[in-house]
Design a protein that fits this description.
heterodimer; A: TIM Barrel; two-stranded antiparallel sheet; 12 strands; B: alpha+beta; Ribosomal Protein S5, domain 2; globular
Chain lengths: 295, 95
Amino acid sequence: MKLRRTMMFVPGNNPGMLINAGIYGADTIIFDLEDSVALSEKDAARHLVYNAMKSINYPCEVAVRINHISTPFGYKDLETILAVKPDLIRLPKAETAADIKEIDELITAAEIKHGFLPGSINMMAAIETAKGIRNAYDIAAASPRMVALAIGGEDYLADIQTSRTKDGKEFFAGRGQLILAAKEAGIHAIDTVFGDVNNEEDFIAETTRIKEMGFDGKSVVNPRQINIVHEIYTPTEKEIDHAQRVIAAYEESLARKSGVVSLNGKMIDIPVVKRAQRTLAYANAVGKYKGGETL
Amino acid sequence: MLQIIQPSQAGTVESNDILIILTPVSADKGIHVELTSPVLKKYGRQINNVIQEVLREQGIDAVHVSANDRGALDCTIRARMMTAIDRAAAKEVLG
């Protein structure tokens, strides 16, 4: 099971942060060539990320957020970065399937040029406008390279003309539609960043909320946020125990050729079994469960 | 081959970075590297080698390089040199 609980942004023009980016335990690091880089330093960030990726063996998935291909920087970003084979290209401000298809073709050409395995470079898209949300499924399904959709918070809020609230009601529509689009396409849904890094209480509340909504992970901007997200996404012992008992009851009913399964008086049907299987697979992937034992 | 036709700079004096300043010189002056670094004694030769290597790869044989190192790794030195060269060479390609 591929985990993308945390996708940590790393400013592309900061050598110290680039070099140390792999040590904090994020599932994915995203080297940023876009919003965190001044217009006058786009070339410098591109060279820095290229050389860091060429010489450092990062222990996690490495993504690069390029500038959009409608800017003067996007194509040059792709040409430079694809030569060092990122795991993932993240397109910001995605609004149409055509954006994704064009980048897919450029990646295909780069894979041939550099002798990389065809299809080995993945893509994800950040949706940051109402138009992008409306086209979310088409964007998600535009290429077999697509592995995730993310919602880009601040631009999205500016586009729909609202602002942040404590309980996140401004994101209800966008998050809801993005999750449905991602799940229908069979890819990950990633939530936006929480920029107030000193406000741990609200960060925990927001992360808990988006996990319950169905998001597979969250973009983070500070290493301090990583363990908090991972802890929230780790199944509890109680959840693991329940999942084990659901599966045991289901298997027992199969052995008895019984059509009806129940546990503690509650009926268990196939979706409940599937959820239990996912809980155990997830617990296994995060190192909390192995061979029938909770670790 | 590229020719350095205008002054340029890349990088910063932040920790882990290096500030590179390139200045054009006449062809007969060759390459001159002026390096300052808190680790000059231990890594001065290595830093100088990386700078010379990038210049050689780009076919540059005349330039003055001022390098103010703040503990940059080789990959950072290479990146800052590439940026400074791009900014100074203005894509002038000599036969």
